[in-house]
Structure formats: C-alpha cells, structure tokens
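Our preliminary data section would be incomplete without showing what the modeling component actually yields. Below, a chain of 522 amino acids is followed by its predicted structure, encoded as tokens that our downstream tools consume directly.
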Amino acid sequence: MKDIKFNKQFFSTPIYYVNAKPHLGHAYTSIAADVAIRFKQMEGCETFLLTGTDEHGDKIVQAAENQKTTPEKYAKRVSKLFQDILPSLNVENNYFIRTTDPAHIKVVQKILLKIYNDEDIYFSSYEGLYCFGCERFYQERELQDGKCPDHGTTPEIIKESNYFFKMSKYQEWLINHIKTNPNFIRPEQYKNEILSFLKEPLEDLCISRPKTRLTWGITLPFDEKFVTYVWFDALVNYISALGYPDGELFRQFWPGARHFVAKDIIKPHGIYWPIMLKAAGIEIYQGLNVHGFWNVKGSKMSKSIGNVTNPLEVIDAYGLDQFRYFLMREMVFGLDANFTQKSIVSRINSDLANDLGNLFSRVLSMNHKYFQGKVKGTDPRIEKEKSLSLALEAESAIDGFQKAMSICAFSKGLEAVWQFISKMNKYIDTNAPWTLAKDEANIDELGTILYNLMEGLRVVTCLIYPIIPQTSLKMQKMLCIQRDGKQVYTLEEIRLWGQIKEETIIAKPGILFPRIDTGKKE
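Predicted structure:
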C-alpha cells in the first residue's frame, strides 16, 4: 500500500449520529471530503463520495423518548436534516446511506456471521466501566480523573453476559500494518497516538447488547436475544454502501478508500475497523484522514454549554464560498481551530476581497481600459528580454498546491495559491502598466504584461475550484474559459501555459467578494 496511486478514489465522511442536528463540525468534515474529491478529479481520478447517518443505539432511543416519538420516526426526521444540508454546503456526494437501510443490515449480519463462524466471536460475562454517551466500555487508563474524556461523566459499572470480538488476536498484525504503511493514518501525530495506545494489551471488544436493555439495533444473526454494538454496525456502512461483497462499485472503488474522521473517533476507525476487516477477510482500506476540533467561544462545540454553531446561519450571513474558504484556510488539517466572527470577517476582507478580488478586478479593468476587453497576446522577444513571464511562478504554485492537497493539507494548498496571487499583485506594481499605457510605443510590452496576468488568473481560478467552486466557475466564465457541464480542468491542463487565446473578449470585472463593514456586521 505504500504510495500507491489509485485512478478510482473513494472518500467517506463518518456517518453522522442522529442524536442532534447538523452543526459546524459536521459541515467541516463534509466539505473537507468534498474538497478532497474535487481535487482528485483534477488529478484525473474517477471518484465516489459517501456520507450518511448512524441511527442505532442507546442515545437514539433516549433522544426519541425525550421528543415523545419512536426511534424510527426520530431517526428518519433527523437523517433528513443531514441529507438536506448537503446541497447548501455544495457537497456533491454520490450516495447517502442510513444504517436502517435493509441492504446495510444484511451486510452487517453477513459479516458478523462470517466472523462468528471463524470463531473470532465468543460469549462471555463481563464487568466494566460503561459510558452511555459513548455507548462503549472504558478501561481505567483511558479515563481522565475517573471520567469519560469526551463527555466528562463518570462511567457506570455494568455486569452482563455478551458476545466479544477477538481484537487482541490481531493486535500485532495491526501494529505491523500501521508501521509498514506510513500514510495509513495521517497526519502523523494520530498514527503515533494509535501506536501508543497499542503498546498496551488490546482487550477484546464487546460487540453485543442484550435486548433486555436495548432493542433499537441490528439483531445478531446467531442469537436473536442480542443486538450488535453500534460501532460494529456503523463502520460496515463503508462497504455496504458500495454493494459488498459482489457489487461493481465495491470492486472498483474499495481499493482506493480513505475515510475522513474527527479525532474523537480515531480509535474505532483506526483499531476496530481494520481488525474487523482483517477478521472478515476483506481488503483493508487505504487510510484515515484525521482532523481536529472547531472551538467556539474558547471550547469544543457542545450542546450542554450552548456553543453549537449552525452552518446555515453562517452561510446566510457571509456566503457559501466565503464559508468554505474560511473552513479550509483557517484550520490546519489535524489541529484544532477557533471559529469566531472576527476571524471569518478577516479572511473574507483580507484574503478574498483584498487579495483575490482586487487582483481579478485590476487585471480585467486594465484589459478593458487599454484593449477594450480584447486579449492582446504576448510578444516572446519582449517577454524574454524583460523577464515578464509568470509561467515559472505559476508552475511553482501548482506544485505547492498539488503536494499539499494530496495529503489533505488544505490550508497549505491555499497558501501556495495565495503566494502566487501576492506575486501577481507585486508584478503589477513593479511593471506599472498605467505608466506604459501613456506611450503607444509600449503597446506590445503592455499586452505581454496583461496576457501573463490573465494566464496567471486562469491558473488561480482553476486551482481554487475544489475549495470555492461557485466563484471559480464564475471567474472562468468571465475569462471565457468555462466548460460545459461538470468537466473539471485537470492539473495537467492547468500547467499548460498560454491557454487564453488572442483576440478573446474578456468580460468586464464585477465584485467577487464584497467587503464586510466590521462596524455593522453582526
């Protein structure tokens, strides 16, 4: 699996738990996966993006009871909220799965039966510390001051008979797999976190709940008195959605599978899931992309402290592409980031309005002022004599962008583009087209400068497509390089310098990103 290039790329978000409405964290993960998929399309890959909802377990029953409804009706209603928000985020998923789908349930039971028949599932009594919020047993060494690290509550001691999965049997295999596949978990700090956890003996996983205390789940195929543990159900969605075992989508896309997850669910995805696949005789996925938390008002978003941010409200206030750009630029993938009104306004005004928007407006305005909107073209002799070509700077930007985006370092990818934008703004100031325009003898040099700037804008508009697709396509249309349908410019095509044709009539500039009055915006 080392450095394998896949021409078919499968990305997935986690399937979101339906105990609450979509919030900023859900939006970030979905948009990050969408950005990664669009980038892979630029690399020439066929792609498949999966998202969906996780609908079984204790918390769903509790949430339904609180709203005086059934788990089925509650899960259906909240799942629809997650489906409906995707177009508002401009996330182009190929499939939306629900763990209550009959086809998914059949696959879960098929895998459970396979592992059970291979004697990797056994029945035993167990007493342990159980967190109802996480719906799992904890070891004492995993607790912080005796409390669940995620919910801050003291786990209850539960003793009952259940079915257990022999995870311990595969511990050494998993350690070796992670060490020999350096990109299996990234960024690296999360790979080290999992390896650190695996230094201790791995306990077998309790994979059932007796129906005497939970009926809302998938019944075990070998014992109707139990339902399966929610994680053993949820994780299987990644292959059931592709039609495992015989589906064509599974055959084509599973080898190139990477999962996007937040750091709080790295253990199920980095330990439970690969071992489940190994035990079931299924090829292991390509890897995990793990991101940090969005902090609001100084702490991780939480309903209990009232700092959950509704992404639709932010989009209504600032715009969709502005929201997508901010999320990808502000968070260093893998680390935590802060979401504040001040920070998003600053990104919009500085990066989008001042840097990108101003550059685009300056170049198109000068082209209309000096050449009535018609592309003059370049003079190779003058270009070489006066070192006016921006081709090398564009190539450097493309290289930096591709290198960063290929490992989901979205912030660094955008930084490479914005460095090029900065160079183009300085290029204008250095060459002063307004001065050259005063003398007819400089017309060829002026045309050469503006041609290089428009070619630079072509590169920029294409590179920003995965992050802010609406703006990208709008800019491409104004540069007369738009394509029909959803055909994306590949990186190979973007690298071809000199694609804007002479005599092309370039549109008059508009305002791409209105500045936000910081004194009035709330």
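The CA atoms of residues 151 and 304 lie 10 Å apart. The radius of gyration is 26 Å. Preliminary results of this kind motivate Aim 1 of the renewal.
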